[in-house]
Amino acid sequence: MGRKRKERREQRKRRAEQGGEDAPVRTLGVGSLATADKTLSTKDYNRALKKLHVELVTLQQWVVKKGLKVCIVFEGRDGAGKGGTIKALIERVSPRIFRVIALPAPSDREKSQMYLQRYVPHLPAAGEVVIFDRSWYNRAGVERVMGFCSEAEAQHFLKFAPSFEKMMVGTGIILLKYWLEVSPEEQTRRLRARIDDGRKTWKLSPMDLKSYGRWDDYSKARDEMFASTDTSWAPWYVARSEDKKRVRLNVIRHILKHVPHKALPAEKVKLPKRKVGRYKGADLPFKYVPELF
Q: Taking all residues of the chain, what is their mean pLDDT, rounded to a whole number?
């Protein structure tokens, strides 16, 4: 165990020397998913998350003030932790500014449209941060692997997606693309938890079960997607999600680093005076919620 830990430390050191925290990960095998040896306590996680939430509010104010347009894409296998990461990201900001887009399966009309057409109306306007919980990259992943599109359609998408994203960036959109990577063992544990936990059964769809047995097919589709769409103007960032707490903190910190922002001057806030007690409430037969707790 000591030798493996030493090897992981050496790998992290070499990666840092080669390019810092954004250095590319050459392979995405199970060995590349090593996380820090020390368990992150809930107390330390909440303390770190609170600081990040404060800065996210600062970023929100800057986005509105400067009219920034931010688009964040989250992709990854089923059970990789996309939902939890997005929830942690938007927990303390305004849903009118941080909008989450999770599109259902396309309608018959949408199937007849140009593929990317259904995503365009949801792109951010000035003063907005739009978060895609899965995105146009469905075509490069689940649609391709599960046979919902032809191979020719998938190849057409891979060819033209970089141009679409270059157009987005050219109009001033800050585009961040995250792939959350999880090991097969951890994915299995999380999917089993969805079966056994009544709070999570809604997360387990028939498509998840069909996709579960196609790990290698998804790995191949992922690698081809990276090869075609990891560009200088819209690079992919891979986040190791074996530890849900750590990946949430790491992704939020990364977003804060890559969306330029500054703290605006804080206005002094003082509660105004109010009159209480001069009006006597009407004696109406209100129906109160039973206080069982």
A: 90
